[in-house]
Fold these 4 entries.
Entry 1:
Amino acid sequence: MLSLKRSAVNVEIQSSDHEFTKMSATAIPATPQQIASLGNEVIGEAWGLSSHFQQGPKTIKFAPPETVDAEAQWQQQQCYRRVLTVADQKELVSLSLSMPGSADGLVASADALSYALAGVDEALPHLRHLRHLQLVVDDEIRAHDLFQSS
């Protein structure tokens, strides 16, 4: 696990095979069935799921693009920015966020990770509530280096 601080947010970069710290929310990709039922308009978007009776962490779903072509690069960046915006709107203080390559449904490429990290980095200075962000990645060192260079 690698840690750094950006703006007022403590960012933890953690491999998907490590034991996770409990967060107040988790952000995971929507399944292909969920995206199909909502329509392709949700590609690049994020939305919160919650119930007054829900126990445990809240969930944020997001629909990143399945490719990393020229248009999808921008969508990838905006999608991860929107995840953090949704988390902040819900007044969450901590969030675990699956990054490209770390979960099913997330494109595993250096470009996808780079654009996702750029979106995260863009959003961090604008957050009012989020104070702890856990980025779940498949390669901690590469993600840390990319994040430092963004």
Entry 2:
Amino acid sequence: MGGADKCLLRVGQLSILERTVRTLSKQSENIYLNVNGDASRFAQSGLEIFADFDKSLGGPLYGISTALSYLRERHTDAAYILTVAGDCPFLPEDLLPRLLNAAQSGTYEVAIAQSLTRNHYVIGLWATSIKTKLDEFIANKQHSVGRFIRTLKNTQVAFEVDQIDPFFNINTADDYQQAQQLDKL
């Protein structure tokens, strides 16, 4: 997508970011936006925004580490943090409660969303207690989210796909056109 901020793409009447906030605000009162790069470009979102500590590194694990640090500063009693990708316009209305139920059912360190037997590693509920493990993993020059998840006590939560995969993500211009069509269903 040429380096564009995919979360600002409009699908139907709303940007993906607006759709995400609308969906998640029904599930949580605390919604934050983590960005890699200049956070000011999202100032109009009305969200509390924080940027990755080291903007040169990038990648989902750095964002998760930054989010965990940010959360610890503001909500010291938080046991979990939910992460979602910024390019998924059709997130389910029951994402957080289902992941939380799964995480708590077996004292899992992470509960990951799954659809059509595909794991969506960035869309997950992470125990805040994993921060040290995550930072050690990153310090060892490891960057694979899937590989990190396999080092944790983890579970997957399968979400039904009716007409639309709730974790459909936009990576190409064709995906974007498909999202526009799916939104009309």
Entry 3:
Amino acid sequence: MEELDAAFISAYKINSLGPIHVITAFLPLLRASDTKKIVVIGSGAADPKSTRALRLSTTVAYARTKAAALLATTKFAVKLEDEGFVVVTLSPGMVDCSATAGADSEALAASLKDFSTSVKDRTGIEVTPLTPEASVAAQLQVIDGLQPSHNGLFLQHTGAEYRPRS
């Protein structure tokens, strides 16, 4: 139980408290800026519909802490809207980071392939992992195009609102 608790606490500090602390620390500078955009990196793992559709029973700490970050981001969106901020959660897509995984790169690449196959089998959606460079380029394009109407949304790396298949 101690190991489980430690894993959850670590994930919570990184994925849930991390964005809150960063936003809070930089808010005075953001308020003084002409560009009032706050983007928190999210994950479809935070969505219960995706979990059910894809039958995901693993990564509980990650999913739960990303869900907490999603809600916190939405709260900031509501709180800062009258100041002209656009606050969103942005999913980077499924990124193939196996090249940075060291000795586990082959296992990670195989895991991504298995996950892509599972998504296609369960939802009919073809998911191709993005390179880190492609993901970042797509995210920057979304961030550049943010408008007040996007405030509070959970967006995909394509710019579309995140809408899981049930």
Entry 4:
Amino acid sequence: MSTYFEDILSQPQELQNFLCYYKTDEMLQRFRALGKLPIKKVIFSGMGSSHYCALTASLLLKRGGIDNEVISAGELYYFQRCTIREGVLLCLISQSGESGEIVKLIQELPDNVTVVGITNHPESTLGKRSDYLFPLFVSDEAAVTTRTYLASCGVTLLLAAALQGQCVEKKVEELQDIFTRMDAYLSTAPELTARWDEFMQPMGSVSVIGRGFSMPSVEAGALFFRETVRFPALDFDGAEFRHGPMEMVDENFYGVVFAPSGAAYEQSIKLAKDIAAKGGHVLMVTDREEESGATENLLPVILPQIPEEYLMFFQILPLQLLANAAAARRGIEAGQFRWGSKITKEG
């Protein structure tokens, strides 16, 4: 069993432990104080999976009428620092708290900029600069992120609730239920993964496709494939895939299409089936049991039905498991970096 596989299986319990800290009066008071700030705009920024973990929170805030954006810390530092003005709440996310771009950005920030810090290391550069610090309270991974990514997703969801004046305690309870269900799902991981892995052979690259609340899993999932399997993994908005990238599809195409219940369910199901009809191999990740029928080129992956704001906690699991299996087939020690390191300080 690889260390990466152990990390995947550890996620539900680690996330339950993380939530124990977020039920304390100290943390709940911190959220309440944040919700009272006069905010004109929220900027979420990080690198890698710390960049993508805020995409669901961003969508929820936009639906709630709160102006915000998600941007990589590199782009923010080098090209868009001018957007960090008075009234902006800057939410910086870095599991180590020492990512090169985050540190550079902090060094250039005026003292009057309010910083929310999400990190697993409160003693870090980010932790020390944070006006509102939200630690992750999970064990560090050796390399490729698993639990720190999902804990970051959890914190950003709680932040979104607090900024909209919603009950954070209720969100914590809902997350507890989600993590319990994750644990049950992962208990079947070996048998599920074997079928997916066999279907996706001889995969030499993968395209990960989705829309809306699936976008965190699209972006982070493709990243995890690139890091773990060390081959090309492309990430696509489902609508954009129709505008040109469909030309890639032939018998050598391997893709993962997210098709959950929601606004774009029918479009996503049709996209998966259209790719399969053109000869591509598709894992179709959905929560609709009526779509469980497999064909030669299409294999459904059925997830439990959960509220769309929590999709990222379940949707990432098949990608993590498949990446682990694909790495093993290629003789790669899953979860270990070849050229990089856990903390990237060159930004």
